[in-house]
Specification:
The complex is a heterodimer of chains A (362) and B (228). Chain A is an alpha/beta fold. Chain A has twelve helices and 14 strands. Chain A folds into two domains: 10-194, 3-Layer(aba) Sandwich (Rossmann fold); 251-361, 3-Layer(aba) Sandwich (Rossmann fold). Chain A has a seven-stranded mixed beta sheet, with helices on both faces. Chain B has an eight-stranded parallel beta sheet, with helices on both faces. In chain B, α5 (172-189) links the parallel β6 (159-162) and β7. In chain B, α4 crosses α5. The chains are: A alpha/beta (362), B alpha/beta (228).
């Protein structure tokens, strides 16, 4: 990039959506494709305000289906491209995301969850977990980062571009309307200045040379004639995905070594869970905290270890067991007691989580 | 002419405008509450037609109990927030017909200022002032040139407020740096800096005036309770 977007490290005060736009700029994203939907609109608003200054581009499409397919096109042209959406927009986008999954395209999407089903509410939920992790008619060969604060929104939005191009799987930053709309301080920086390398892009189509003579033909398929052809390709993709799981998966845990009750949460709910755990520890209660940062692939091994040590887990989420289902699969065979605390579409305070923990542990 | 913290004779009609998340609403709310002490009717008008978050709706009753007449939607009165935009309340359109002082909280960034065109009689209101709220910790208004460009993009501006902060990390130094940049921009624009605003703990450390000689106005936080 000719001009640095961020000179030096700066402590700033931003909304989450704005953070995503700045992070995409800092990561060298060249084009955003999108269609408006609350609560992600300000990602587009800030991108369109900033993009011309830095010679970046934007295309507003007629809907999210088209925003997804144009992102696919941008990626195939070798551009560091991304999109952002929410709720019903995420639903529509599953078809192009499936295509990206089939063709191993580094599709990057920022998902700012809102309430559902359908148009639900405009602001907040954690109800797009299953759709983002396992949506479409595929096998969920995707990487999903669930952020909890504005610093992470910045850091992981940058990281998503590297991850996507490094492993060639669709990569998501999964936040929510609370994170998108709320405002808090964070440090913004140029990734180069911190030695953060973002994988280079390259075109899938229109490459130099004669296919089959100078280079292998670029044959990117999302359609096969017979089951066996598809099966063979999928086997390779699944093997690749499984082989990177340990390297890609991330988590955060606290006080889990001697915990008798483990609070498990992700995203913005994990903030409340962490605060609750800290407060309960200060009161001498043996509560621990575990937060998967990657919801796909899940950090299964450390999760199992922490859960098995504690023997009981309280799963807190603003959905009716979407994280819960992922955890149950990852923990199959474990004997720990699984205690749900589900409030679909509604947030949690630390006090609520503390109260539930106290009921369970005393 | 502005009279902060003092009783004045003529009617006050002020609109608070600024970059998205600059602190417009907090400044407007505090200004309206300050006016309650003048023992005259005060109307605070929510002119946000877009944003469902950080608007006056959740704190409407609290502000009314403190003596401010608030024109803002209530949850049960409307549907489709953030989805369809808000319909302007009829009371907001005719707010200038009310007696006493009027404060407009103009939401959703500087583009939200266009909603002032929907208020009947505003162009001919002799007391009408537009005040720009600036937080230089917001990257879009971090420098003098950014602020000058922002103000020049608006039809009418009568003064600037330095509302620079970093949330819970705010220090007097952060506010003073904001005062320096905002004052410099104001000089370029030929506009007054009406005040530097800061939460009362920081305001106490700053004293009555900031390093640029601008009046320091303490803020009490109401907007964190208005998130949703």
């Amino acid at each position: 990039m000719a001009e640095k977007v961020i000179a030096g490290e700066k402590r700033v005060f931003m909304t989450g959506n704005e953070v995503v736009a700045w992070a995409a700029l800092a990561a060298g994203a060249e084009i955003m494709y999108g269609y408006p939907i609350t609560p992600q609109n300000e990602i587009m608003h800030y991108w369109t305000r900033l993009a011309p200054k830095y010679n970046r581009k934007f295309l507003q499409t007629e809907d999210e289906l088209s925003a997804g397919f144009t992102t696919v096109g941008g990626v195939m042209a070798g551009k560091r491209a991304f999109t952002a959406t929410a709720g019903p927009g995420n639903t529509l986008m599953q078809e192009p995301i499936s295509m990206a999954e089939a063709m191993r395209l580094p599709f990057v999407a920022m998902i700012i969850q809102r309430g559902g089903p359908s148009t639900g509410t405009v602001i907040y939920s954690q109800q797009e977990v299953m759709m983002t992790v396992l949506g479409g008619n595929g096998e969920g060969l995707r990487i999903v980062y669930s952020t909890a604060n504005h610093q992470e929104l910045f850091d992981y939005s940058i990281k998503a571009f590297d991850t996507a191009w490094k492993y060639r799987f669709p990569t998501f930053v999964l936040a929510d309307g609370y994170q998108g709309k709320m405002r808090e301080p964070l440090t913004i920086y140029d990734p180069d200045d911190r030695g953060i390398k973002i994988s280079d892009t390259e075109p899938y189509v229109g490459r130099p040379g004669t296919p089959g003579v100078d280079r292998p033909p670029g044959h990117y398929r999302n359609t096969y004639n017979v089951e066996e052809e598809l099966y063979e390709v999928l086997q390779d993709h699944i093997k690749d995905f499984e082989s990177i799981a340990d390297e890609v998966s991330e988590y955060e845990s606290m006080a889990s070594d001697d915990a008798e009750l483990l609070v498990v949460a992700h995203g913005v709910v994990a903030r409340a869970a962490k605060q609750a755990t800290e407060a309960l520890r200060q009161q001498g209660l043996k509560v621990g905290y575990f937060r998967p940062i990657t919801l796909r692939p899940l950090p299964s091994t450390p999760l199992r270890e922490a859960v098995n040590r504690a023997g009981r887990m309280l799963v807190v989420e603003s959905a009716y067991g979407q994280l819960g289902r992922l955890l149950k699969e990852a923990l199959y065979g474990a004997t720990a007691e699984f205690i749900p605390y589900y409030k679909p579409g509604v947030g949690f305070t630390p006090e609520e989580i503390m109260a539930r923990c106290r009921e369970l542990i005393t | 002419m502005f009279f902060w913290g003092a009783r004045r004779i003529t009617r006050v009609v002020e609109a608070y405008v600024g970059e998205y998340a600059s602190g417009k609403s907090e400044v407007a709310v505090n200004r309206a509450l300050e006016m309650v002490a003048w023992d005259e009717p005060v109307t605070l008008v929510d002119l946000d037609l877009v944003e469902p978050c950080y608007t006056l709706r959740p704190i409407k009753k609290e502000l009314q109990a403190l003596g401010v007449d608030v024109i803002a939607w209530e949850t049960g009165d409307s549907i489709g927030w953030g989805e369809t935009g808000n319909i302007l309340k009829a009371e907001a359109k005719w707010a200038l017909r009310r007696p006493g002082n009027i404060v407009f909280d103009v939401g959703y960034g500087v583009d939200g200022a266009k909603s002032l065109n929907l208020v009947e009689g505003l162009a001919g209101e002799p007391s009408f002032k537009v005040i720009i709220v600036i937080n230089i910790s917001r990257p879009m208004t971090a420098g003098v040139d950014d602020i000058v460009a922002l103000v020049k993009g608006l039809d009418k501006v009568d003064g600037l407020i330095n509302n620079t902060h970093l949330g819970d990390e705010t220090t007097p130094e952060v506010v003073q740096e904001g005062a320096r940049v905002v004052t410099s921009a104001a000089r370029k624009l030929g506009l007054p800096v009406i005040a530097t605003t800061a939460v009362k703990e920081i305001a106490a450390q700053l004293g009555s005036y900031d390093a640029e000689g601008n009046l320091v106005r303490p803020l009490k936080r109401y907007m964190p309770r208005s998130f949703w």
